[in-house]
Amino acid sequence: MRLVLLGPPGAGKGTQAARLVERHGVPQLSTGDMLRAAVAAKTPIGLKAKQIMDAGALVPDEVVIGLIDERLDSPDCAKGFILDGFPRTVAQAEALRELLAHKGMALDAVLELVVDEGALVDRMRKRVDETLAAGGAVRADDNPESFKTRLEAYRAQTAPVSAHYDGRSQLTRIDGMAPIDEVTAAIDRALVGATVDRR
Ligand code: ADP
Fold it and tell me: Which residue lies with its CA nearest to atom 6 of ligand 1?
C-alpha cells in the first residue's frame, strides 16, 4: 500500500495515518515528524529548518525531498508507506514521481481529507488543550499566528498539489468533517482496489 494523504493542517491526517499503519502494517512517513526530530537532534537540517517551521512556513523543497528519498530506501518501506505532509508543493509532487519511478515503485492512492477552513483553528486549539492536559509539550507552531501562516502556505502552495493529482485522475476526496471512525471507513472504501498509478 503506497499512499499519499493530503489535507490542511488540522485535517486529521496524523490520526488517520496512525490507523492505516495498524491496518496495513506499513510505516507513516511524516516530513513534519522527521523535521521535528532533526530540530531536536540539532542536525544541520534541523538548525536550518527550526525558524522556518516555528513561523509556519515551508522548508525548502530540496530539504524534504532529500529526507524522503533516503527514507524510502529503508527496508521497512519495501511493502509500502503512508506519506503524511509530503508532497506539499507541486515541485515535491513531481520529485516524488521521479523518485518512485527510479526506485521501481508506484502510488496506489492519493487521498485528500477535505475540511471546512473554519473548523481548523478550533481543532488546533483543541489539540493544544489536550496536549497540555496530558502533560505534553505543545508544538512551537501550534499558536494562532503560526497557524495562520500554515494555512496561508497550505492555500498558496499545497492546494495546487490536490489539483495536480486531480488533473491526473489520481485524487480521491474524503469528507474530513465526518466523525473519525466514518473518515476511516471512507478511506477503507477508497482503498479497495486502488491502484491509481497503474490505471
Ligand atoms: P501540519 O500539522 O501543519 O500538517 P506538519 O507536522 O506536517 O504540520 O509540518 C510542520 C512543519 O514542518 C510545516 O509547517 C513546515 O514548516 C514543515 N514541513 C513539513 N513537511 C514539509 C514539506 N513537505 N515541505 C516543506 N515543509 C514541510
Answer: 32
